[in-house]
Amino acid sequence: MLILGIDPGYAKTGWGVVQSNGQLNRPVSFGVINTLPSMADNDRIHFIAKSIGEIAVSQKVEVCSMEDIFFTKNISSAINVAKVIGAAVHQLSLLSIEVKLFSPMTIKSAVTGYGGADKAQVQEMVRLLLGLQTIPKPDHSADALAAALCYGVFHATQSRMNNI
């Protein structure tokens, strides 16, 4: 199964594609979608959603796993990220690609075994689980790969439970 992981952001949205069979995971590609502060808000959100759709089509992904919004002290930043999430979900829905949202704690737990893991621990586990020589850079792409790995764990667990 080809899984698109997304770490949504307003200035930088990380993305990563992982091939998963429930036991083995292989990195396919990853990167970051950058927007410029000089762009109008609507243009930034549209550009991110359009880019996510293009990545999904070019990589032939079957499902998308995205980090959900979490409460933050900077409410204006959270609102912009929520808009990005909504636009991305809409774009992927138009392509008939299922989107599963996971909390940051759930992603950390799936990748490291501990929901309170710090960023460095998550990134090192992403490196290890995907057999990479170095931690994926920039950080947003490593976070997106973690989201994709989380869906792999979720799907494998669901499959096992349905076979019981």
Textual characterization of the structure:
The protein is an alpha/beta fold. It has a single domain, classed as 2-Layer Sandwich (Nucleotidyltransferase, domain 5), CATH 3.30.420. Helices cover 51% and strands 21% of the residues. The protein is built from five helices and five strands. Helix 2 links the parallel strand 4 and strand 5. Helix 1 crosses helix 2, helix 3 packs across helix 5 and helix 4 crosses helix 5. The chain is globular. The mean pLDDT is 93.
Features:
5 strands; alpha/beta; 164 residues; globular; five-stranded mixed beta sheet; 51% helix; Nucleotidyltransferase, domain 5
Q: Which class best fits the helix and strand makeup?
A: alpha/beta
Low-confidence stretches: none
Q: What percent strand?
A: 15-25%
Enumerate how many helices there are, as a single number. Answer: 5
Number of strands: 5
CATH architecture title: 2-Layer Sandwich
Q: What is the total number of structural domains?
A: 1
Order the strands across the largest sheet as they lie in space. Answer: 3-2-1-4-5
- CA gyration radius, whole angstroms: 15 Å
Average pLDDT metric: 93
What is the element string, with H for helices and E for strands? EEEHEHEHHH
CATH superfamily: Ribonuclease H-like superfamily/Ribonuclease H
The helix fraction, in percent, is 40-55%
Q: Output the CATH topology.
A: Nucleotidyltransferase, domain 5
Apparent shape:
globular
CATH class: Alpha Beta
